[in-house]
Amino acid sequence: MAGSVQVAVMSRFGDRVGILEALAFSALGTAVITGVVLLAVRHSFGGYAAASRQPPWLWIGALMGAIVVFTITFAGPRIGTAATIGLLIAGQLAMGAIIDRYGLFGLDRIALHWPRILGLVLLGVGAALSLKN
After folding, report:
1. Given this model, what pLDDT does residue 131 score?
2. Is the predicted pLDDT of residue 43 greater than 90, yes or no?
3. Alpha-carbon distance 127 to 84, whole Å?
4. What is the 3-state secondary structure (H, E, C) of 58-105?
5. Which among 133, 28, 12 has a CA at the least distance from the CA of 72?
6. Chain centroid to CA 104: how far?
7. Residue 128's pLDDT band (boundaries 50, 70, 90)?
8. Would you put residue 104 in left (φ > 0), alpha (ψ -120 to 50) or beta?
9. Whether pLDDT at 133 is above 70
10. Is residue 16 exposed (0-12), middle (13-18) or buried (19+ Cβ within 10 Å)?
11. Structural domain boundaries in the chain
């Protein structure tokens, strides 16, 4: 539910203030909200120091998050919320299958059997159909 609402809201926000401005404001808001939650739950910002000591390639999650929010902010008003969500989900599941298959990022390898491939194909077809008017 949150992802669909985010597409709709960020689409409107990007139209009103600009895509990059909406993205920057969203990232700032996320940082403030999660910083407050971190402080409330852990009573410390020590997790930031621990994160800064990790290998820099692990920080790619922030870049991927920015790409996702930029994409939904850009695509939402152009192709609609349902099509944006459909393509986002299909793309995420396809990439997830590749990550699982090859054990990327140090994860365990998970085989790609025909039911999984069929599911990915059907999701791709559904995403493509959502683009039709």
Report:
1. 82
2. yes
3. 9
4. HHHHHHHHHHHHHHHHHHHHHHCHHHHHHHHHHHHHHHHHHHHHHCHH
5. 12
6. 18
7. confident
8. beta
9. no
10. exposed
11. 2-130
